[in-house]
Amino acid sequence: MDATKASESAPARPFHVLTKPIGPICNLDCTYCFYLEKEALYAGEKKWRMADDVLERYVREYIVGQPGEEVRFAWQGGEPTLLGVDFFRRVVQMQKRFGEGRKISNALQTNGTLLDDAWCAFLTEQEFLVGLSVDGPAELHDRYRVDKKGQGTFEAVMRGLRFLQKHGTAFNTLTVVNRANGSHPLEVYRFLKSIGSGFLQFIPLVERQAPVALKVRGFDFAPPPHPAAAGEGGVTEWSVGAAQYGTFLCAIFDEWVRRDVGRTFVQLFDVALGNWMGLGSSLCVFAEKCGRAVAIEHKGDVYSCDHYVYPEYRLGNVMEAALGAMIESPQQVKFGADKSSTLPKYCRECTVRFACNGECPKHRFITTPEGEAGLNYLCAGYKRFFTHIDPYMRVMADLARRNKAPAAIMGMLREEEARAGGGGVRGRNGACACGSGKKFKKCCGR
User: Which of 38, 330, 376, 438 measures 20 to 30 Å from 386, CA to CA?
Assistant: First the structure.
């Protein structure tokens, strides 16, 4: 396929591809990893590496398919650093060849255990953003993030972090919130800040055990529920509890909103503020519809989503079909629309639907209080969290609309709490602490 044909099939709207150039192959054996089992999809595979012809076709089509001036690549695994630095040198060369002057950026998600001087010098030189997977301090991180011998990986990750810091490589952290660390929110949050992370992602761990038939085929975890056939399902012992996750988020938010707004960026909080401002979600799980974020495997197979890498969700292969055409295919359009159209009545009538939108369909396997299928397992936690942050988000959204920094809320809260501690509260006729010069009742107290 030439660039002209690829261009003709390019979507009018941007889309995102999570690139798996080494498939599910990893040097670790994390207890909770849902992707390791994807080896069963490629039985007999011996070369777990995206071939140069597949890589070239993908890089070219992805660049051509993006309507904007900036193209963002995301590389994940498995563990992508197993491919070696030279693989990504070829990636950068291809991006320059097909980029035609457009701004190309790269993000690499890694467990950090293989990082060294050579890796970090390259990542810094080419301005890669590194996502470092770390689940908290040693005793929490090592609970589930283990190597092939079952040994904890915390020290190896911290060694990789030191290489990132030595070379000034831009990085953020991704933390899987599970049954163990989910009970220690402030310990996790403060630890991540202490190691220099300024941008934090918290991913809730929710996995169900696979039925016997799938276990025989090599799958340990159940596939996502069918939109029309969700039902009760037991989760693994390491999955975070719904109420536990809500408590986890509330505890971190309460500290963040008083100390760290504008200093430490928590992805979920930033996304929530966008929803409170009416801007819509920049994160697929909280968007009204999905379908614009697909995954590509090392063989060039494209799937509807990173969490839907199963045969029934395969859209095609980049060597046989245009990437843009797969994104706009009826199958994928329906997949994205089902996120909204299959919401149960309980969700459609929820006061915080605008902030949650039912979250990821992968987690919709319990029933509503009325017995309707399709409720998100994490519903109770999200409902508590979004209700809890509502008054703070209203204030920060109002500050932003008036071209004031949302961080001003920290000063407002300090003053409010100081007055309350002194036996009084802010009078509604007093000056607003945001610095507008207006009375509180006419400003942030509206």
Answer: 438
Mean per-residue pLDDT, 380-401: 97
Residue 269 has which token pair?
């909080």
C-alpha distances in angstroms, 196 versus 7, 199, 254, 355? 42, 9, 20, 29
The DSSP H or E segment spanning 72 is strand 70-75
Residue 34 near residue 178 (C-beta atoms within 8 A): no
277, two tokens:
């401002």
Residue 102 CA to its chain's centroid (Å)? 25
Apex 342 CA angle, 227 and 206, nearest 5: 55
Q: Which two tokens stand for residue 61?
A: 């089509």
Q: Is the whole model's pTM more than 0.90, yes or no?
A: yes
* CA pair distance 298, 307, nearest whole angstrom: 16
Confirm whether 147 is a catalytic residue: no
Task: Report how far residue 414's alpha carbon sits from residue 432's, in angstroms, rounded to the nearest whole number.
Answer: 12
**Cα separation of 413 and 418, whole Å?**
8
How far is the CA of 332 from the CAs of 34, 133, 146, 170, 302, in angstroms? 22, 29, 35, 34, 11
CA dist., res. 187 & res. 184, Å (int): 5
Which entry of 2, 306, 390, 398 is annotated as an active-site residue?
306
Residue 364's pLDDT is 95
- Cβ atoms 152, 146 nearer than 8 A: yes
Distances (CA, A) of 271 to 61, 172, 201, 255, 403: 29, 16, 11, 18, 18
CB 313 within 8 A of CB 335: yes
CA distance 178 to 366: 19
